[in-house]
Design a protein that fits this description.
Elements lengths: L1 E2 L5 H5 L1 E6 L11 E6 L4 H13 L4 E4 L5 E3 L4 E7 L10 E5 L3 E7 L4 H10 L2 E2 L11 H7 L2 E2 L2 E2 L4 E8 L3 E6 H4 L16 E11 L5 H17 L21 H7 L6 E2 L2 E3 L7 E3 L5 H19 L8 E3 L9 E2 L10
Parallel strand pairs: 1-19, 3-6, 4-6, 5-18
Antiparallel strand pairs: 2-3, 7-8, 8-14, 9-14, 10-11, 12-13, 12-14, 15-16, 16-17
The structure holds flavin-adenine dinucleotide.
The site of flavin-adenine dinucleotide has 30 residues, from β4, α4, β10 and β14.
Length: 331
Amino acid sequence: MTKVPHPSSRVLAALSTDRALGPYAAYAVGGLADLFFAPHNEGDLIEGLDWARANRLPVFMLGSGTNLLIRDGGMRGLVVYLGPLTRSWHLEVRERNPDSLVVRVPSAFSKAELLEWALDNSCAGLEFSAGIPGTLGGAVYMNAGTRWGSYASVIESVRIWVPDVGPVEKTSSEMGFKYRGHGEGSLSSGSVVLSADLRLNISSDGGESSRAIVDRILSYRGSRQALERPSCGSVFKNPENSSRGAGRLIESAALKGTRRGGAQLSTKHANFLLNRGNATAADIEELIEFTQQRVKEEFSISLEPEVIVMGEKRRLDEERYVLREASGSSF
Ligand SMILES: Cc1cc2nc3c(=O)[nH]c(=O)nc-3n(C[C@H](O)[C@H](O)[C@H](O)COP(=O)(O)OP(=O)(O)OC[C@H]3O[C@@H](n4cnc5c(N)ncnc54)[C@H](O)[C@@H]3O)c2cc1C
């Protein structure tokens, strides 16, 4: 059976079928996306999301894939990739006071570039984020952070596109940020983070002290983390009910260096799960499950993955989308 949704020409221009997702994921694994949508501006993005809604297609937002394990069978429905939008979306300073400013950051903007902009503009508050890869959209979804802080501390509000409703602005407290996540219901299924407003402090030393902190954090991360092979950084969250972090628990269970196929728990930092070059998503998922099981047996502690596991283990049917333009200009 062949499914034939009919997009408008603008949506069609940004759509492709059967796109391999490995190149969009930090683990460098993952099957095909049935439909891959890479719009070039916000208007096309919203038109595509409306079209997906009208055709009851599940929608999945892809940031930079630095916290995603996409299974080998790939993703059904529409995978939305905002990469091309970075060319048309810019930072916008919306408020400037003697001590602070508010900057609107588009969701496809890279965290590293945002930090660099902050340092160049004598803004403090984002030092904690040094070394975290990916987009601002992924940072909002995950409340990304480090031992030095998280995005919740600088986000004032988030602009979200909600299906059937349109753009909605939520304050930081309405987002209900928590450790590596947001409050239930604050980002309903199919919602898309469009941008976030961040309040940053203006430092009197031209950003020198912030740059020194960033340099220290980067050198700490470089010396401790396993950055030589594809990974998603820490694979498990630190458990709340233990004084030991996930890495320490994995190490204490003598699992450091454990391999499953092409996947391996790093010998340098046990909470980093690496693709040694030929891993499948199944290898990675099995190693995650094995690690959880062994830590549970050893310490009665359940490790919760920080990495989001998505997609199908196998592509179950032979359905393919054939794309044809809608006959009218609207639908
Ligand atoms: C080497 C390495 C080090 C890392 N270190 C850290 C660290 O120190 N701290 C930390 O917190 N994380 C860390 N990570 C994990 C990861 O970088 C963060 O979680 C990051 O915020 C994910 O951003 P992303 O753009 O890659 O999102 P993705 O991985 O693409 O997506 C993550 C989730 O966000 C959702 N999402 C993305 N964009 C949007 C949007 N616009 N609207 C709605 N939903 C969206 C996705 O659907 C998905 O559910 C590390 C990863 C690597 C590879």
